[in-house]
Amino acid sequence: MAPKRPVNAGAFPISVERPAPNRPDPADLYAALDLGTNSCRMLIAQPKGNEFHVVDSFSKSVGLGNGLEASGRLSRAAMSKTVAALKICQRKLQKHQVKRMRLVATEACRRAQNAQQFIRMVGRETGLKLDIIECEEEARLAVVSCAPLVSTRTEQLLVIDIGGGSTELVWLDLTAVAPPDRPRALMRLHTGFVHADGPFPAARMVDWISVPLGVATLKDQFADVEDDGARFALMSCYFEEKLAAFSPYHDAADQARDGFQIIGTSGTVTTVAASHLGLRRYDRNKVDGLRMTSAQIDAVVNEYLALGPEGRRSDPRIGRDRHSLIMSGAAILQALLRAWPTDRLSVADRGLREALLFAQMSSDGVLDGGTY
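Now predict its structure.
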């Protein structure tokens, strides 16, 4: 049966990937940049009602974490390539005269011995100030970005964010929150997982974990395994072993399927969704909010395995920037779906950039509804 988008898939906050009709006032603009282990992505947007409109964007695979697993350091080549991409971001910020921005780096810079040297290099050559955020903030922002896709029937929520260098998982209990208020309760988590008593019922964080394995680092762990199928199986089993420290993992069998939802946000998840839909040209409107069954995901992964490395490289649904990483991502995704009692995954084409924008706009009270 064809998957269906949930009714509230387009709910607030959603980025609209088209230019604003008129040149916006620079005073209205916000920017968010996410520098991960594999990619550099930026959005420039302006608030509009309960949403924001994207004025400009940038995305490029930079491979900042290439070789990090073996050396513990960012390589000169990777840093140079990343700085070149950041110079483009700097020119866009300058062109739009953006003053309010949040520019963050994640797992590669958290782990690299020479991360501070790289941050200084970025500042010296681009004038941009990168903040290396901690795992907890990255996990919280993943939840915030996915909040609009949460069903009002959801009582237990698992958000998974498969990155290049790490995978964040957050389990939340929403039973104390009235169904219509559940997405907004999750949006308020941008200020922290723990809330003092207030006028709004809070989503309860049951547990969260940052597994130091993402699509790039897991691929590097098993680069010496030549057989494609064996490498995939080993990656999936290895990642599943790393979930043992996540406390809901042990109690998952007792959770009722009704009221449980998994939302996945990452290039892996959206690529699998695009492959399932047969999209030769990626379409965010068809992917974001899609619900896939585990059987549909398994069918796509099995097709990837049948294609082999050469077939995946030439498959337009996967893309040139993703083909070398898709199997490590698929190994993580399948391990996660084996562990918990649901056969459906909600696909989110949204991430740190959207959450960073929302957090800034919310803190400034420029979205309809005020500050969250």
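The chain is about 40% helix and 20% strand.
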